[in-house]
Design brief:
The structure is a homodimer of 429-residue chains.
Chain A (H helix, E strand, L loop, with lengths): L2 E8 L3 H12 L1 H8 L1 E9 L16 E2 L3 H5 L5 E4 L7 H10 L4 E3 L2 H18 L3 E2 L11 H7 L7 E5 L2 H12 L4 H10 L8 H4 L2 H15 L9 E2 L7 H9 L2 E12 L2 E12 L11 E8 L3 E8 L3 H20 L22 E10 L5 H11 L4 E7 L5 E7 L2 E2 H12 L4 E10 L5
Parallel strand pairs in A: 1-2, 1-4, 2-3, 4-5, 5-6, 8-10, 10-17
Antiparallel strand pairs in A: 7-9, 7-11, 9-10, 11-12, 13-15, 13-16, 13-17, 14-15
Helix pairs in contact in A: 1-12, 4-5, 5-10, 7-8, 13-14
């Protein structure tokens, strides 16, 4: 038996347009597989005049966004506008009105997740957001449902395709950061303003969501340490390869006895690690736990097609539960937990210095590290005199100690320049 | 608020024992994350006297298996016995009694899936089997829920850890099949009777389940073409590496306009394909679709810990729906669809021949292929005279044609031996 469900859509950009086209084009296949037909009743857009990739019937489009939620024919709201405002209040209003919501809005969920999840729970309706992280990669549902019984230790993700494309270009074609960014923009991977990508802000919102679901303790985007890839140089990428690493922008979510820490930064990833071989705009998420050991999920992290598939999966799931008429409990509950300040997190550092190679310089540098309580794992020198490049890789120490060691370098006359500092992906907690 | 749910367990071997220990040891963590506590009320076992890795309270164990289902305190049945009998009738009885069932039994689901899923639908209770394929890798839920809106073209899996361990050993340590099998047995990867693994039967049951969920058309295990790895030689594995391939036992589920085909056989996987680098006992599943392009899932495919995690995830999900008191619709519906006979499927073949290298032999061989309608992609010869090894790789042709070409070889006097035939993983439909 087929059941029809009325859809209200907020936003009809790339993903929204693809979604509506798929709902029409694949309607028979979806009905055969799920017993459901989706009837798009209202589409809220900012610009009524813009062309759409789907047939626009009378009364379908509205620029009074609230109408989408209030329409009595709308049983399920799909939010694909992005951004905090007005999306946040619209999603909240829909949930409070007892309408299930599917959203792809990572920024909104990272910022207002607990409030929206609580509203969904009060109304007993599903609030699903598979597309918010990893685009077409199923990760939210596996993490919050399939792995609900696992005590996850660590989640490491390449969750921003633009930066992974740039770093792959720099590595494979030995291009500069600027040239790689230009290539990413030309190919449509990077926006005209790529700040959210290259600064790590996009990845930080996703990291907050992954950490929250993995550990059951809410991590807000303000709790995520965030460093972008703007300072990564072609020299670092080349040195990384020489030392057996690939440079990747990682989201690292970790739980130790001290608590949960979440961070986004460029990292030296050992070449034998599965994440090292994730190329171009592909995303990947690596999950570690005592029973599952490690799991890898990889696929397209963005784009209209993959994202629409993730949204559609959520719509089918939400419709199934909603039509059953049940008051469903949320898929995951959050408990208060300790968040560890990043300065207390143990990290390993790679540092590239330019030094004046006089006798005793290495002793001075080593002394600074020793005083800060950081022990050096390896040192490698290239060149001589004032052009000597020194690569220092440290052992695990707290960020606080590593930063103190770094400060001590600036006090040494022979250290001409601290070229860069990149953390190394270690074996974890 | 915490809700308690009474569990009846059928089978307490490796997975069952691990599961009960986890339910006790991780009870607080599970309750915090899900709001659920699991109370194991009855455990059905064959041998009451056997030692268990969990505290056995009075009346917990029974060897009258039906008691587990009939116990009024049992709200959810977990079947971890394996095999068709008596597991099948017990699962059916539980579903008919309106009790949700979680099972890890690939053999049972491949053999009686439609019947059991129909019984679950009649009773409006969940019947979940995430652990049946890929052990700890979340694959059943992603395939049947997250990707329900995708028109999947192909699923390719390394779904048997024992055979992947053996093939990895043969490749990395240049050992014979027999020596690698012995190593697998010593390390506990292979059973004392490894027939189900090396014959491909275990992978065939999993392939049937994957194909059914991916395409929404039920594929029984009897519909799966199945060839094991017993005939793969060290020479083939070495030649594969030389030609840029890794030999893997693959489950290939494909949908074309002609219909669905499902098969298990050793395959030459191009080294640049993500499945080529899956080593040891790891499992991996690669999914192709028009919108998602390709997704890779990799992780531990067997073992008590990973499998218990998958079972626990299903239990949490089933409990959540059951406690909501809803009559839930099944997650996927199956429609009748065309199944393509394997002889009509297009494949590419690698063949290793030993020939007497006389003038004209290649022309005779090529003639046989041509008559069968198979065109040759590449030929490579090593050695001379009666010891010459000829490697032939064909272009895509139907299995029927490839087999006809193979038969023609036997009629050529100079062909001393057809050493082996391995299909090549191509670009798909």
């Amino acid at each position: 038996m087929e059941r029809s469900i009325g859809i209200g859509l907020l936003g009809a950009g790339t993903v929204g347009g693809t979604l509506v086209s798929r709902l029409i084009g694949d309607a028979d296949a979806i009905a055969a597989k799920t017993g459901l037909t989706f009837d798009v009743r209202k589409v809220g857009v900012r610009d009524l005049a813009k062309e759409r990739p789907f047939p626009v019937t009378d009364g379908l489009l509205t620029d009074r966004l609230r109408e989408v939620i209030d329409d009595p024919g709308v049983e399920l709201v799909v939010e694909l506008m992005g951004g905090l405002d007005p999306a946040g209040d619209l999603v909240l209003a829909a949930l409070e009105a007892g309408k299930p919501v599917v959203s792809a809005n990572k920024e909104l969920i990272a910022a207002r997740g607990p409030e929206l999840i609580a509203a969904a729970e009060r109304s007993g309706v599903p609030f699903l957001f598979e597309a918010a992280v990893g685009g077409g990669i199923p990760i939210i549902r596996p993490l919050s449902e399939t792995l609900a019984g696992e005590t996850i230790d660590r989640v490491i993700g390449i969750v921003n395709g633009t930066t992974n494309f740039i770093l792959t270009e720099m590595s494979e074609n030995a291009t500069s950061y600027e040239a790689a960014l230009e290539a990413a923009t030309e190919l449509g991977y990077a926006e005209s303003d790529p700040t959210a990508d290259v600064s790590g802000a996009d990845a930080a919102a996703k990291a907050a969501i992954l950490a929250s679901l993995a550990f059951g303790t809410w991590v807000g985007v303000e709790d995520v340490f965030c460093e972008g890839i703007e300072a990564v140089s072609a020299a670092d990428v080349a040195f990384a390869a020489e030392f057996g690493y690939a440079v990747k922008l990682l989201a690292v979510c970790e739980r130790t006895d001290a608590g949960v820490s979440t961070r986004v930064h460029p990292a030296m990833v050992p070449l034998e690690h599965p994440l090292a071989s994730i190329r171009g705009a592909t995303n990947a998420i690596f999950i570690e736990g005592p029973a599952i050991e490690s799991l890898l999920f990889a696929g397209p992290g963005a784009g209209g097609g993959p994202t629409a598939t993730a949204v559609l999966g959520d719509m089918i799931d939400a419709a199934r539960e909603t039509l059953a008429g049940a008051q469903v409990a949320p898929r995951i509950r959050f408990s208060p937990g300790e968040l560890v300040d990043f300065t207390e997190v143990f990290t390993e550092w790679y540092m590239r210095l330019v030094v004046d190679d006089k006798p005793g310089v290495l002793a001075k540098i080593a002394g600074g590290f020793g005083d800060a309580g950081v022990s050096i794992k390896s040192v490698w020198q290239e060149g001589v005199n004032t052009e000597a490049t020194l690569i220092v890789v440290t052992h695990l120490a707290t960020e606080r100690s590593q930063r103190e060691a770094l400060r001590s370098l600036h006090a040494i006359d022979e250290v001409i320049e601290v070229g860069s500092v990149i953390r190394v992906l270690g074996d974890g907690p």
